[in-house]
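Private note to self, pasted from the team thread so I don't lose it. Backbone tokens:
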């Protein structure tokens, strides 16, 4: 009879024990800073604030993205995207597939640094990928 009386108490204590089967929460991923998308056919000049945004993000090891669209002499758009994943490197993706008279391809270059130059920046220590 004592065993029957102890059974509800044991079950109640088991229900209060911590659940060891839960998975640990994934660490929060940093938000990618959007430095903007700029079509230079409208102004022709690099947007200095966007360059500063990317430099600051790379320096702080924050994920960031910047897209610049330039036109060829014939007016075909060439897109260059600068992407930093927060590890200090910058991946540069150039898409020339809409250039009717040039190589129609996507190229990837990885750089380990970018240097401020006037109101813009210059990629440094780059390797084609």
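Design output:
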């Amino acid at each position: 009879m004592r065993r029957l009386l102890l059974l509800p108490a044991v079950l109640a204590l088991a229900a209060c024990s911590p659940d060891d089967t839960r998975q640990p929460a994934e660490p929060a991923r940093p938000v990618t800073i959007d430095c903007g998308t700029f079509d230079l056919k409208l102004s022709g000049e690099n947007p200095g604030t966007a360059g500063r945004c990317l430099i600051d993000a790379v320096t702080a090891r924050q994920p960031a993205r910047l897209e610049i669209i330039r036109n060829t002499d014939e007016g075909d758009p060439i897109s260059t995207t600068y992407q930093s994943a927060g590890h200090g490197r910058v991946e540069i993706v150039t898409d020339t597939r809409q250039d009717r008279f040039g190589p129609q391809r996507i190229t990837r270059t990885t750089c380990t640094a970018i240097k401020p130059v006037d109101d813009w920046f210059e990629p440094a220590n780059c390797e084609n990928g």
